[in-house]
Design goal:
heterodimer; A: mainly beta; 7-stranded mixed beta sheet; B: mainly beta; 6-stranded mixed beta sheet; 11 strands
């Protein structure tokens, strides 16, 4: 149980285009989903926290108009990178927290999306 | 400020034991996680500690001292597949994970 999927697994796009990444909790409901970015040889960096039915909370330094997050249901959150540039190339990972919760608020991670902007 | 410290890289021999240390300073504390991450993949959960002491799970054990802001991950009977990055993360008062930079573990035959 507790499976999170991401789509696509990898994407290559031209500079200036927009890319949408989907994050789904397959066998549980997630009130909260998290979006991370990871550059090579660096740790995970939290971009935003997404709560179902409300606006996402962005971390300092993350442009909310560039990284659009929508969490329309308890099983789906999307991240749209608008007007992508080469510096946005990174590994984007989502995680989800089960509504029922565990005793320790475990986050379940998706497999990640590798974005390359040419 | 919030800070998680762990060594950047460690090397160990197949079949041996290795201990990866982590110190943390966070706003509030609701537990300490260890995750394993292979290159190009998302992290996978290894352990969670919220009370002082040692939690053993097969070849992996995790220890926590809240008073010292210190945790370690102990890996026994190392296998080549254990070569990965090991991430320490503290759950703060807002139930947000604060991540360390990760320790790259290299296993040699």
């Amino acid at each position: 149980g507790a499976v999170v999927s991401q789509h696509p697994s990898w994407v290559i796009c031209k500079s200036g285009t927009s890319v949408k990444i989907e994050c789904r909790s397959l066998d549980f409901q997630a009130t909260t989903m998290f979006w991370y970015r990871q550059f090579p040889k660096q740790s995970l960096m939290l971009m935003a926290t997404s709560n179902e039915g409300s606006k996402a909370t962005y971390e300092q330094g993350v442009e909310k108009d560039k990284f659009l997050i929508n969490h329309a249901s308890l099983t789906l959150s999307t991240l749209t990178v608008t007007s992508a540039h080469p510096e946005d190339s990174s590994f984007y990972i989502c995680s989800a927290r089960d509504v029922a919760g565990t005793s320790y608020n475990e986050q379940f991670f998706g497999p990640g999306t590798r974005l390359t902007v040419l | 400020g919030q800070n998680i410290d762990q060594p950047t890289e460690m090397t160990a021999t197949e079949g041996a034991i290795v201990q990866i240390n982590c110190t943390y300073q966070t706003s509030g504390f609701n537990g300490l996680f260890w995750y394993q991450q292979h290159a190009g993949e998302a992290p996978t959960f290894l352990s969670y500690n919220v009370l002082d002491g040692l939690e053993e799970k097969g070849r992996f054990s995790s220890f926590l001292s809240r008073s010292k802001g210190y945790s370690y991950l102990l890996l026994k009977e190392l296998q080549m597949k254990d070569s990965a990055s090991y991430l320490c993360a503290s759950l703060d008062s807002n139930y947000q994970l604060i991540w360390g930079a990760g320790t790259k573990l290299i296993i040699k035959p």
